[in-house]
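lol forgot to send this yesterday, sorry. struct tokens for the thing we talked abt
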């Protein structure tokens, strides 16, 4: 194909123009005046004309009209020294092929425009757009943020002829505004001077507003004449923008912005170019979608990393081994340092010596770097020097280029793992529990119930509860009590435990123990136990208690009074009984007095059994013991009671019946002593936090075979083998006080009863 001939018409600069056309592969011709140009057109084969204005003998518009009269299809480009909107409109009206405003410095751009105007092959534009698409696609692959996409797309577009300017706008659906967020090319304050909307108003009728509405490419091929471009025409023509395209950047139903492209010539967007730009818009929209998903995943990953209940550290491989690059809150909190202190710290600083040796020997770390999913145990050191046993899971950590740079190290505190195992065991135990267990959501409906829950309420299975309200299980008065008293406590995050009356499937009621524990999501766990049998047992015990109280009154008052009367009359009879009957009378008096003492002991036993509380207080040991020694010595004048050493002035946990312990032991030592002289010795020692009282007698002693049963050990009944009510009462009271009592042999003969009690304070 022969070189294209271009005629440049203008005063001066012709040689420079010829050189530029020659460099572009065309032949340049020059004419200083319009008359000379017309002569050359009539005598030479010219493929295109470019004329400056004004000319020495006329202006460019007049020359254009004269050329059109004789050469209607010849490409003609007007290149005024100083352009204006009026001049551009007049040139377009006269049939100019292209209009390029500028000066001598714009002649490189002029050559390109002229060659475009005279190029007979229409695919030349399409080839440039295809190159643009390739360039943009390459840039999108490397883009990591939406800002990267904005900048690289705009920059690539303005590097492609004939595009002079590009910007990307953000559409706000709440007010219809389209706000610029990125741009490139010759702008000179254009974006600050215009207002673009997509709200149905006058400023929404341009290509940008239409593209927002249609989600399709919209163009204006001639800015100077298009009526819809009137709001922005003056500003656009001043900057030599001659045509415009708006390409929606969307993916599926999401609009990520509008790409606006400006060309410095009219008719720049033919159908093929529009189709390629529309495809490019979809490609860019998909890139935004990819980045948004990536940011979402990264945000979720970061949140998971930050809030993970396990310890996570990100390491970087260095010549000195793995270094902590970052860690989550749990890692820092468990080990006692701040995250800032950990950054740049060698991982071995938190490893024990043994764990460090395994690490440096390649046990796990090298395998993780090689791509293996490593699971092993590691012992870490806390800031306080404590050992923390963990389960380590490590995977390779890669950079954005896919190169391995370190590891993702996840440490599970084995204490937490054991706790998790316990939770699993508890969950399994829920199904096997004899208690009814249900989980109720914040609306008051069951989402779970175990088998026992159904059995307790008399339903066929747990499915009878799921989706139904807890109110089905209670009568109106109980529901009202729950609403007034229980639910406010649960909403405040407090547990509630108490008794209630439930309703079975058959309508019968039953007493229950109920435990309600609130959950973080507004629901709660309920645990129910049928206490029908317990209530029946409590009623039986209450009846037995009442009967025992009556018996106690009879023993304490009626029987004791009658026995005291018998002893009194028997004593009077001493004056009327002869020597032959006196022995029998004395035996009656002694037995009567023993019976009176038995009634007193029985009353004490009954009082202990009837006592509703087992609370103790600090009681002085010296007073309780010496007072009972004096009392027993006065009652049994034929016995010798002595103390060995001084009784310490200490306090022990007891109550008002502590004296009964010592009275019964002293009385037992005297009454069951058959020696010629009944001797009882009392001693007290205090060692550390314990006071030990020893009551020793010189009686016959207690056989080894009976020592284990003398306090009814293992039987606790009044009919068990033993020495009577007194020692039963002693063992019961000492056990209540948190002490111990036992019997030993005395030397050379007799028994020693030992009482051991804790000391208060």
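and heres what i got for the seq, position by position
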């Amino acid at each position: 194909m022969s070189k294209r001939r271009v005629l440049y018409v203008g005063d001066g600069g012709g040689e420079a123009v010829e050189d530029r056309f020659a460099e572009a592969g065309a032949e340049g011709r020059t004419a200083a005046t319009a008359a000379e140009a017309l002569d050359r057109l009539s005598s030479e084969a010219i493929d295109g004309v470019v004329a400056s204005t004004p000319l020495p003998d006329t202006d460019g518009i007049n020359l254009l009209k004269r050329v059109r009269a004789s050469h209607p299809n010849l490409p003609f480009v007007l290149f005024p020294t100083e352009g204006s909107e009026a001049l551009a409109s007049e040139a377009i009206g006269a049939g100019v092929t292209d209009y390029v405003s500028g000066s001598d410095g714009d002649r490189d751009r002029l050559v390109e425009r002229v060659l475009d105007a005279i190029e007979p092959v229409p695919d030349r534009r399409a080839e440039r757009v295809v190159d643009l698409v390739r360039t943009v696609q390459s840039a999108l692959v490397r883009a990591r943020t939406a800002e990267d996409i904005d900048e690289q797309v705009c920059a690539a577009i303005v590097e492609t002829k004939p595009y002079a300017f590009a910007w990307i706008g953000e559409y706000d659906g709440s007010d219809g505004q389209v706000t610029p967020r990125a741009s490139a090319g010759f702008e000179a304050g254009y974006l600050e001077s215009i207002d673009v909307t997509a709200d149905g108003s006058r400023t929404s009728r341009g290509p940008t507003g239409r593209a927002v509405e249609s989600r399709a490419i919209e163009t204006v091929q001639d800015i100077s004449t298009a009526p819809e471009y009137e709001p922005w025409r003056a500003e656009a023509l001043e900057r030599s923008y001659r045509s415009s395209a708006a390409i929606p950047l969307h993916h599926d139903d999401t609009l990520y912005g509008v790409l606006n492209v400006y060309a410095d010539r009219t008719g720049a967007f033919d159908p093929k170019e529009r189709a390629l730009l529309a495809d490019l818009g979809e490609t860019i929209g998909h890139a935004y979608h990819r980045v948004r998903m990536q940011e979402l995943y990264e945000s979720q990953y970061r949140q998971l990393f930050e809030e993970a209940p396990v310890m996570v550290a990100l390491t970087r491989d260095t010549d000195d081994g793995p270094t902590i690059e970052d860690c989550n809150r749990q890692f820092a909190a468990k080990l006692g340092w701040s995250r800032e202190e950990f950054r740049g710290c060698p991982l071995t600083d938190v490893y024990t010596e043994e764990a460090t040796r395994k690490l440096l020997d390649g046990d796990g770390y090298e395998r993780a770097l090689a791509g293996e999913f490593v699971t092993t145990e590691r012992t870490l050191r806390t800031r306080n020097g404590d050992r923390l046993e963990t389960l380590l899971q490590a995977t390779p950590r890669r950079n954005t280029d896919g190169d391995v740079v370190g590891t993702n190290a996840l440490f599970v505190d084995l204490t937490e793992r054991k706790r998790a195992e316990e939770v699993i065991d508890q969950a399994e135990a829920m199904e096997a529990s004899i208690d009814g267990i249900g989980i109720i959501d914040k609306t008051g409906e069951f989402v779970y119930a175990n088998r026992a829950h159904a059995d307790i309420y008399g339903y066929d299975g747990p499915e009878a509860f799921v989706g139904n309200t807890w109110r089905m299980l209670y009568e109106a008065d109980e529901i009202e009590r729950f609403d007034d008293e229980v639910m406010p406590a649960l909403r405040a995050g407090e547990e509630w435990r108490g008794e209630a009356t439930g309703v079975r499937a058959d309508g019968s009621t039953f007493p229950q123990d109920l435990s309600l524990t609130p959950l973080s999501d507004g629901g709660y766990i309920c645990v129910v136990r049928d206490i029908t049998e317990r209530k029946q047992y409590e009623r039986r015990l209450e009846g037995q208690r009442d009967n025992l109280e009556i018996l106690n009154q009879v023993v304490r008052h009626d029987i004791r009074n009658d026995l005291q009367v018998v002893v009194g009359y028997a004593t009077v009879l001493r004056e009327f009984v002869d020597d032959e009957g006196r022995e029998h009378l004395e035996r009656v008096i002694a037995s009567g007095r023993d019976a009176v003492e038995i009634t007193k002991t029985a009353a004490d036993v009954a009082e202990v059994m009837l006592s509703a509380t087992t609370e103790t207080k600090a009681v002085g040991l010296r007073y309780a013991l010496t007072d009972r020694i004096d009392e027993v010595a006065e009652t049994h004048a034929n016995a010798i009671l002595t103390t060995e050493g001084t009784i310490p002035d200490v306090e022990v946990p007891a109550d008002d019946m502590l004296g009964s312990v010592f009275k019964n032991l002293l009385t037992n030592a005297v009454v069951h002593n058959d020696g010629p002289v009944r001797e009882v010795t009392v001693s007290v020692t205090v060692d550390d936090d314990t006071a030990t009282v020893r009551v020793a007698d010189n009686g016959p002693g207690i056989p080894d075979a009976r020592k284990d049963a003398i306090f009814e050990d293992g039987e606790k009944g009044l009919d068990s083998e033993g020495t009577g009510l007194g020692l039963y009462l002693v063992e019961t009271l000492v056990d209540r006080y948190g002490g111990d009592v036992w019997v030993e042999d005395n030397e050379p003969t007799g028994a020693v009863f030992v009482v051991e009690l804790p000391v208060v304070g």
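Residues 359 and 365 are 6 Å apart (CA to CA). anyway ping me if u want another try
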